[in-house]
């Protein structure tokens, strides 16, 4: 254990708080998090420190690994961008533009979140393959959506979509229609109103949605294992490389890429937190 | 949901004015519907159509295959172990974090968010490095004949890692917004701590708790990456449903992976319906 509950509790307000159960619930929480999160991360740290730095660096930055990072970052970025554009549009339509079937579509937005990613990869690969419902039209046009880099982007767009839509939707719901009306009365055109009122108001939220969908995409493995074909240097993402090396009992190689992925995650978490703080400040003047 | 309705929420919002629905309206709707058809509707329908493409016979045979049945059992077993543990953790953590102020609170909150940003594959490897043959505790476990990696316990650990935030994440904002006046009143009136929790706190968080459990269960049954790393892929022994789908897919079976996938797709549909029903209920109770 890193810290005993008693060390964490050193607060003046809990002395005046009459509710019972603080030490036992906090104690349980700390023990649980220690066993499930801190000790395993500690194991990674100890194992990493025990390895040769030179070898770790070589394996983390060799050509195959660099190709995997490039694809992971590039495809996640592309997917997050697609989700920022189409997710915003979808959120907007779901809130503002009534049409038959809107409620059903609204419920379906959670589908990628609820569907196991293995099934997502399976069904997307089949849709975009040569004989699939979409592939039979797209492949002759030269658009190969399965076993290709495009396939990686498609799967990552799928898994990130709900994060983008569900972040933006509540923000659109709280937009004040009176501001729009006022601008309209003052003669502002639709584009003018969109560019100077709606877009700046929604921008921080769209960025947060972008970040969440990017973070989700960066760690994704299940759907990619099915749709990408997992070819080294071509369609292999970083998490796939970790699994490949682990399957060959190349622990040092797997750890080196896992540590890089972990650093990506922490950096992203920090960025997202500050973005969130910025968005909150933006909304409460 | 709370006994005292939030006054801000009860002020009726003026309904957004409906402009005349011009070409622009239908253009937006058209693009949104097309995008959702490709990314949401077709993937869902495709699972079932492919699974039944050779008729009911092959579909059924794929489901009653002994290895598939064992995968169903293993998936259920993992969910039965991990979901209650995570539910208890979620309630305990949100009680401490939402009802009390203490140093290290923010640190605990970020720790709870961590699994959302770590790749499931990395989560799996953490446990391999701890419990695996070359792991920190590997030697000790081997001497004592305890098998964790490539066995059920390792899969349970990996699943808990990726699913424990769901219940806590759902409950912390709810408990925080409800404050502690009602619990304090119950205590003043002579209830003990347990009675207060059972009769005051639990009724006010029950739907949030239920929703958190639903999400946690969906992820626990559907997790792929973290479990794939620690499972060892032993057919009939350590294959969960998602791993079974992958194995059948790699055998180029045209029907069986989709047949097994329909079970997981149905789980997703049930999860979505429950979520929609809970949101509808919450909206109508306010």
Number of DSSP strand runs of chain A = 0
The CATH superfamily of chain A is MetI-like
CATH class of chain B, named Mainly Alpha
Order of helices and strands of chain A: HHHHHHHHHHHHHHH
Count of distinct structural domains of chain B: 1
In total, the number of strands of chain B is 0
Q: Helix segment count of chain B?
A: 14
* Assembly level: heterodimer
Second rung of CATH, namely the architecture of chain A: Orthogonal Bundle
What number is the mean pLDDT of chain B? 91
Share in helix of chain A: over 70%
Give the C-alpha Rg of chain B.
23 Å
Helix content of chain B: over 70%
In CATH, the topology of chain A is named: MetI-like fold
Q: Largest protein interface?
A: A-B, 95 and 100 residues
CATH architecture of chain B: Orthogonal Bundle
Measured between the Cα atoms of the first and last residue of chain A, the distance is 42 Å
The average pLDDT of chain A is: 90
Task: Please tell me about this protein's structure.
The complex is a heterodimer of chains A (285) and B (286). Chain A has 285 residues and is an all-alpha fold. The N terminus of chain A is likely disordered. Chain B has one domain: MetI-like (MetI-like fold, Orthogonal Bundle). The N and C termini of chain B lie close together (6 Å). In chain B, 44% of the residues are buried. The N terminus of chain B is likely disordered.
